[in-house]
User: Fold this.
Amino acid sequence: MKSVARHARALLAMIAASVVASIMPGARVAHAEEIPRLDSRDPNGDLRVGNPMAMRGPAADAMLEQIAMIEYRQLIADATAQRRLLPQTDARVKHVHDVVDNLMPYALKWNDRSRNWNWEVNLVRAPRVDAYCMPGGKVVVFTGLLDKLHPTDDEMAMLIGHEIAHALRQHARVMVDERMERLNRGTLSAPQLFGIGDFDFDTGEGFPDVRYSADDEREADVIGTEIAARAGFDPRAALGFWQRVESLDRRMPVELAAAHPITAGRLDDLRRRQPDMLALYAKATRRPVDSLPAYHARLN
Assistant:
């Protein structure tokens, strides 16, 4: 697989070089605090967070998706070669696929390009407690997450909705921008997103340190929970799920917690937004809010 990895790195380097060359000297990258933010409802009652598609930097949409595709193909190739890729007929793959299929119709409004994404779902047998959705609609879940957290349907929908929101809002763009700056200085060979190389699924070797900002987590929480609630999943599961991830992270390193920092402010925000999300969930399930059954959060 090393030759495949080298080929992938070469492709990424070519993409990066073309983008770096296209950026004018002195070009300015917008910082998160400069992006106007909205947190309200539009006339149709839809939640709005930030601009519909706020530009985060010089990395173009197509380039971001192309980089993600190369890295995704490399990961799937390595998982296949190591016999770690679960078949599409596996009940766990079908289950995650069903969740994604239910979420997708409510996700497309957040990114017009997503209507043309070739969505894919794969599960990889590895101890990582992790999952992500790459730009372009590539969903990857590691079985360590299922084995250690045993998420309910509602919790899985909240997690996948959160990951899809990161892809829809192109939060990886910031990571590409940072890596492109290093590339331009000659300290990086290619602007990686989720890692490119010979993946060691047992030790985690080959996977990069991905860490989203507080602003990105806030957006992904709001948008992901809204998507899942509109799809008929109980939004109260979001708070309980991330609390369980936090609890597990206190006992052992959890990749999901490292990439998506769980702070008191973030948990408070999820709690504060529950009434709005419950209204969407009630509408989706055609029940009055006051008739919804009590929610009993799972314990680790």
